[in-house]
């Protein structure tokens, strides 16, 4: 244990379950941004000199300026997200980076299933009927409010689920869908990886036998064959607007689209047009390109067949607590030169 | 085949997939109410004399007056619901009754899962943020919009689901919840049926081994132990307001309540109070006592933690088509004195 405590800066109070993990350590001099809003850059720049560990939120850009303000004492940056970080600048300075993968898999898979159900069952329109006090105006009618059923049924025994991106969250979503009677799963993933039927056969073993097929397909087949389609691929330039007019025109009229990954993957304007013109049945999105600057005149907000949530994919009490706890543990391990529970391998950025 | 066709009256056009089942029969004289609203009683009374088969909707009361208007030729009433029928009057006249059980199990189970997810994830509040154009006002914060997670997770490995009523729809709902990591299932059912651990052990075999327990419990234990609680019990005087203040006070603060059966089972005023005061986390209801006369000033509509849908439990294209098809087949079998695919046994009403 060093003689003088190690300085640690945390950019948000992480609540009574997590803060004691840091505050109760004898070897730490803990400094916490005291307000319930994103940290002021000026405050951060003033506190950083001599810092050994920095724990940041999604709201905080970690730039070379920030890293240089901390100076050569900085050993670790611990974060609950990664997209707001200049990873190259961190790697170049040989600073370790802790992050929180996996922890949010269940929360996002839950939300993906919820949005698929809501899109099929016209949830935004039907909730609005009640909210506006219009329920008394509707009498029962054989096909009133009807949408496509997510579950297979005796009259409709097959269901194909499609995944754009087939990582952990996609597989957790598929697991949840199996007892709804999903019979077939198709996916696309990194176009550079060659078609590998052996890998698909291996993957299929993770699921109950009621899933008849699991296979990688082309993007156009993904669009045309999916009854429900989940966008679960990383963001960035490579995947920008993969879901565009051409893709949406290829979908089934009774299908639903769910995006719980990154807003940039879907062309919002094309999706709004597709819903308006009935190329697909409905959509449920937790992310929108340009968020959070999404106002009432946004084309998707205008579209009653689009359920929109304000990016709450990982927003469960259990998951955020798990993320904050892991971030605190990464920080502690990092400043003490121990192995972090979840450190990002930065070797590819170190040339 | 009889010499003169049998007169059949249908109170609503059931669409191009179902009507040919009836219209294409040589032995039938088909009369269909031509409007897209509930049938006028006067029209019905005029058409009924000499009718052999009557196919009715939820909206149509079948009273002794209606039955007498049809007269002694009436052999069968076929319906897509049963609560609007005077069953005793039908039984007394030795008329057969066809109905459509089971067909809607999957649709209602889907909706039950959807509402449980929505209640936990604060769907009404978070959707409203986007609908009102308020998303730009929110910046990320560690616990913003967080609710209890339906799925079990590494930090929270147990989940107990409770069912008030444990029939087909409840079991179909439980099946869907298993891969979310549900570990324990408790239920209450008809209080007259004695506790039977052997039956519970038999029932448990229908589900994967990851479900550790399945057992009948008292009403108070159902309230206190459930992380999510599904009301799936018949309506009527016996179950009226079983979910009342006392029951709701016993629930976990992080639990959610879902009602997809009958509005009368839940005391709406007590539920609104419970949500306002935080006795439980949230609720999702597809049915409300007094529906459809539910206006904006209703106590549950006023409560942001209550998701309300306008009774769309069976409203999927597949299910309503299945219900209409079965109703048509019951009618055909009934008028021809063949066995109906789904006839209600009226012997208990025939003394």
Describe this structure in words.
- Chains A, B: InterPro entries: D-isomer_2-hydroxyacid_DH (IPR050223), D-isomer_2_OHA_DH_cat_dom (IPR006139), D-isomer_DH_CS (IPR029753), D-isomer_DH_NAD-bd (IPR006140), NAD(P)-bd_dom_sf (IPR036291).
- Chains A, B: It holds the Pfam family 2-Hacid_dh.
- The structure is a homodimer of 351-residue chains.
- Chain A has helices at residues 19-23, 41-47, 64-70, 87-92, 105-120, 123-131, 168-177, 197-204, 219-225, 245-249, 268-277, 317-335; strands at 6-10, 28-32, 53-56, 76-79, 96-98, 160-164, 184-188, 213-216, 228-231, 256-259, 282-285, 306-308.
- In chain A, the strands form 2 sheets. Chain A has a 7-stranded parallel β-sheet. In chain A, strands 2-1-3-4-5 form a 5-stranded parallel β-sheet.
- The radius of gyration of chain A is 23 Å and the shape is globular.
- The longest helix of chain A is centred in the last third of the chain and has 19 residues, at 317-335.
- Chain A has 351 residues and is α/β, with parallel strands linked by helices.
- Chain A is 31% helix and 14% strand.
- The model of chain A has no long low-confidence stretch (mean pLDDT 94).
- Chain A has 12 helices and 12 strands.
- In chain A, strand 10 (256-259), helix 11 and strand 11 form a beta-alpha-beta unit.
- Chain A has 2 domains: 6-99 and 317-345, NAD(P)-binding Rossmann-like Domain (Rossmann fold, 3-Layer(aba) Sandwich), CATH 3.40.50; 104-308, NAD(P)-binding Rossmann-like Domain (Rossmann fold), CATH 3.40.50.
- At the A-B interface, helix 5, helix 6 and helix 12 of A face helix 5, helix 6 and helix 12 of B.
